[in-house]
Amino acid sequence: MLHPFRIFSAILIIAHPLLLKMSLQTICRLQVTREDADTLGHRVCDPDADSLATSGQNFLKQLNQCKPFTPDQLKVIQDLLSSGNTPFGPPSTWSSSTLDKLSGLLPMLPQNILQNIPEVRLKKKNQIRRGKRQVSKSVRKLRYCPPDKAVTEEVLQDKLMPIYYTPEELGACLKGQFLLDHLPLVTSHAYTDRQMFELKLNLDREFPDGYPEWVLYDLGVLLEIMSEEEIKKWNITSPETLRYLLDSQPTDDLASSIIQRYVDHGNPLNATALDAIGPRYICLLNVDQLRRINEQAIKMAKPLQVSKCSQTTVNTLYPKAKRAFSDRHNEFPAYYDLIKPYLSKHPTLVGKKEQSAVGFYITFWGERC
């Protein structure tokens, strides 16, 4: 017996394309299955952003062939892929075969998604290794700045400045105190990888024992070529510096190193630090770091979305959250809204009953009795 959806789709295709589009949008809001998506084929390109948000995970395979997308469609697709709630899983688990299946969508993904894909990160690390080797060779080739290539403040004001210099020339002409005095302006430009390595090498010469905190605020584009070993030498002494570095959306590996360096300096994981870490990096915290978070920090910080974190993370933070908001447990639904981010994976709060506010209160008061 033919699937009713397939019969309906066939009638619509014959009847009128506009009717098909309108019906498809309605159907998508009611959830389109993968089987339905196969039936629709290229016609899944038609749904609006709301439809994609509802059922997009079921027809990513077909969307891979669609182009161009509207800005709203593109935003939903990016959010969907970064969430990990698709048959492909989170970007951090994508393999080469996954990239092949999503080849049509990859060019539209932002850097903060691409940098978490293992294959892309490996390629970037290889580029860094090659860049370092090339820089070490170029140092021997050009020691002095050609007279006609001298870098002045006027030159730095030119947005096209990088294209006037080879990596070797940039390394020879932009260094020393002049580089330090104009670092914010220098790092505001877009460079090739080799140019960035030349500039970083000059900066390393000025601070062989690690960058002082003021330099970290002016790293700009150079942050993306820093290694975990180099971050271990940085002076990160304030949550404001932590926020600045994490706001640049480094890879998970670099973010973990930045957070650890902050903690190594004896800095507290207070509300300001937790807000800096935010939902993007909260799941990276290790057990020792999680134990440093107290109830007051949780109470004062913005909600920590830990539903996608490990069970260890949730188990560690849930009891602290309960104590942090215990003075509001009689306020409904305010208390539920405060504690909700910590519920989804907690072993005592995973049943269907507890997924609702009423069910939560039944369980909560049961625990208190």
Automatic annotation (TrEMBL):
Keywords per UniProt: Cell adhesion, Glycoprotein, Membrane, Signal
Listed GO biological process terms: cell-matrix adhesion
GO cellular component: a single term: membrane
Record localization: Membrane
Signal peptide: 1-20
Keyword hit for GTP-binding: no
Primary location recorded for the protein, binned into one broad class: membrane
InterPro entries with a match to the protein in the record: Mesothelin (IPR010335), Stereocilin-rel (IPR026664)
PANTHER family reported in the protein's UniProt record: MESOTHELIN (PTHR23412:SF6), STEREOCILIN RELATED (PTHR23412)
Family: Belongs to the mesothelin family.
The protein, known as: Mesothelin
Native species: Phrynocephalus forsythii
Lineage, broadest ranks: Eukaryota, Metazoa, Chordata, Craniata, Vertebrata
